[in-house]
Every structure is written in C-alpha cells, then in structure tokens.
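ok, trying the design again with the full structure, not the truncated one.
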C-alpha cells in the first residue's frame, strides 16, 4: 500500500478542495494556531461543529508536532471545562456560535474565512520517523461504560493504523467516500484519515441530509462511513436502487439491527460491513467477507483475537493507544492482551460475534 494523498479531494457539497488547495488552507491554519500562542508539544483543544474545521485543525496541529484534542461539539460546558483542566489548558479553538467558557479563552476559527495563501511546503503531516513517538491526537471515549477517558494516540499509531485501513478497505483515488460519522470520535477520525491519505474524494456532512446522501449513493459514492441509526433512518425512505459504483457500506459504534441489515441488502443489493473497535483499540475487526450478517468480522493486519474461559474477547494489537490522559486510569491490558469487556463467540467462518457485556468485568472501557 502506498499513500496516495496528492490525488485526494475533500469538502462538503458546497465547498470542495484539491490537495494543493487544502494544503494551502492548512498552512494558514498553522499560522493561525501559532498566532494564538500554540507551539510544538502544545495540546490544542478543538471544540467544533463543522467537520471540515475539525480535520483542518487536527491535521494542522499534527503538522506542527502538537497534539490535537478532539472535543465533541455536543459536550456541555462543565464537561469541556473538565477536559481543559485535565490537559492544563485555558485556551480552546471553536466554531460554535456564542460559545462561552468561564475563565477560558475561546479563539473563533473557520476554514471558510482564512486567507488561503500559497505554500510550497507540504503542510500535511508526513509522519517522519523522528516524530513517531510524539502525541498526535487525544480522543475521548463515549462514556457508555463509565466516565469518559482521554485516549492518547501517537503519530506512529495514527500512521500505521491509517495505512492498514487503506489496505483493508482498498481505498484508492477512484473512491468517492461519504463521511457520516462525527470526526471527533475514533471511528470518524480513523476513516477520514484513511480516505484522505488513500487519495479518495471525501465528502463531509455536518447534518444528516438524508435526501442528498441517498442521491450521492445512487449516482457516484463508492464508500459510506456510517453508524447503525443512520442506516436505519435511510431505510425508512423506502428507496430501492442498485449502484454500479457503491461497493462498501461501513458500520460501527453500536450493534446493528438485523432488520436494518436485511432491508439494506434487499433494497440496495449490498451488505452492510460491520466493524469492531474502540477509542483505545482503533478499528480491530472488519467483516469484509460478509458471510454472516451478525458478525463483526475478522482481525485486520497487526491484530490478534482470542476468547478467554469467561467468554470475554481479548485483543492483541499494534494499534492500542499509548495511555489515558492523567494517571487516574490504566489501560485494561494483561500479558499484552487488551480486555474488551465484551462477550463474544467465533462463528463457523472464523469471524467474531459480540454477545453483550461481561457483567462482572471491572476492566472494561
């Protein structure tokens, strides 16, 4: 697999940028961040609604050897303040209208209003060997099984996983990818990185514009990065079609209803490809074969899986995050195996089926 970033395109329905154009926007974004006092080794909090702003700020932060701290736009003021205290930062970048945080400095940012000067230097992160141990991004867990934790990924972890996902999903410059999952979460972040560095055309959505999305799926999209409730809502449109270009409907973050899977299969003539991972693990399993609708698939390159005597899924992976922010939590890793806290079984094809949570597990994420 070779990185094919020079052929990538990225944007929304209204604003699309070539590699060169977006490189220039990143150059101006880096200047913006430096002008606000952020430096190499800074932790840069990003609290944005617009996905294009999120990825521009994230790539700019990594490019200047800083660490992007991704904060969900839906988080309440207290939660955001807790995160800022956790990383010892009093400044934050935001595009949220009328955003206010007590005793914190908010810098407004919009990619649509920056100057876009020309930069000959490559502003995209090139993931140099000497920088691979630098913290690249902090992503927060959902908190569905406890208090949200800040998960640290280094440049090396981001780069190696990104390359593996490009190869696994077979992303090329021919792909037109619809990104429906939020980019501030692990699933969305991982796949926008694969889409960009795989050279695809990446369309971002801030609102779930289902009519426009279906229209793109019919006409030109080849890959959709979605979550279960989005596919469920799309099936309610009672839309039947068969596209020669659409090849991959990726789905993660929660369990997929068989009814939704079956409806999509009948109406669109394509299975939904389930994926399994977490903020700590990154994507670890993908059901690329599609032999069993209830399976989250087999391990990707660099990952091993086994099920212990309690029925818990354990993962050994090259992509497990470095640590959590702070010293309050420790990764649930024993003898090199990450304890997922999920009950699982192998199916007849060697894929894995998730059966629920391990009730007495105290190590889960």
């Amino acid at each position: 697999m070779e990185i094919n970033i020079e052929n990538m395109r990225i944007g929304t329905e209204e604003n699309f940028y070539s590699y060169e154009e977006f490189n220039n926007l990143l150059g101006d974004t880096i200047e913006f961040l430096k002008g606000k006092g952020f430096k190499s080794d800074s932790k840069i909090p990003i609290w944005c609604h617009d996905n294009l702003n999120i990825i521009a700020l994230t790539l700019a932060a990594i490019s200047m050897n800083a660490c992007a701290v991704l904060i969900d736009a839906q988080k309440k003021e207290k939660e955001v303040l807790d995160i800022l205290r956790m990383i010892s930062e009093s400044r934050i970048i935001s595009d949220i209208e009328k955003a206010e945080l007590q005793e914190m400095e908010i810098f407004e940012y919009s990619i649509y209003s920056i100057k876009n000067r020309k930069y000959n230097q490559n502003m995209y992160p090139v993931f140099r060997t000497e920088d691979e141990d630098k913290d690249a991004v902090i992503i927060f867990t959902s908190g569905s099984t406890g208090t949200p934790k800040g998960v640290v990924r280094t440049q090396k972890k981001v780069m190696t996983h990104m390359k593996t996902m490009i190869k696994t999903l077979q992303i090329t410059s021919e792909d037109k990818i619809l990104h429906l999952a939020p980019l501030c979460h692990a699933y969305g972040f991982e796949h926008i990185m694969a889409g960009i560095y795989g050279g695809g055309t990446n369309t971002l959505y801030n609102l779930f514009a289902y009519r426009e999305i279906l229209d793109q799926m019919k006409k030109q999209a080849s890959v959709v990065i979605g979550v279960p409730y989005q596919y469920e809502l799309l099936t309610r449109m009672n839309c039947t079609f068969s596209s020669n270009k659409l090849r991959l409907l990726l789905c993660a973050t929660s369990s997929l209803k068989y009814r939704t899977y079956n409806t999509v299969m009948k109406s669109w003539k394509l299975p939904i490809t389930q994926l399994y991972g977490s903020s700590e693990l990154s994507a670890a399993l993908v059901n690329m074969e599609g032999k069993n609708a209830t399976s989250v698939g087999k391990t990707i390159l660099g990952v091993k899986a086994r099920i212990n005597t309690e029925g818990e899924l354990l993962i050994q992976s090259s992509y497990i995050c470095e640590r959590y922010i702070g010293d309050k939590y420790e990764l649930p890793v024993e003898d090199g195996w990450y304890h997922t806290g999920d009950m699982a079984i192998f199916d007849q094809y060697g894929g894995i089926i998730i059966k629920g949570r391990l009730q007495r597990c105290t190590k889960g994420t």
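Keeping the full-length input from now on. DSSP finds eight helices and 21 strands in the chain.
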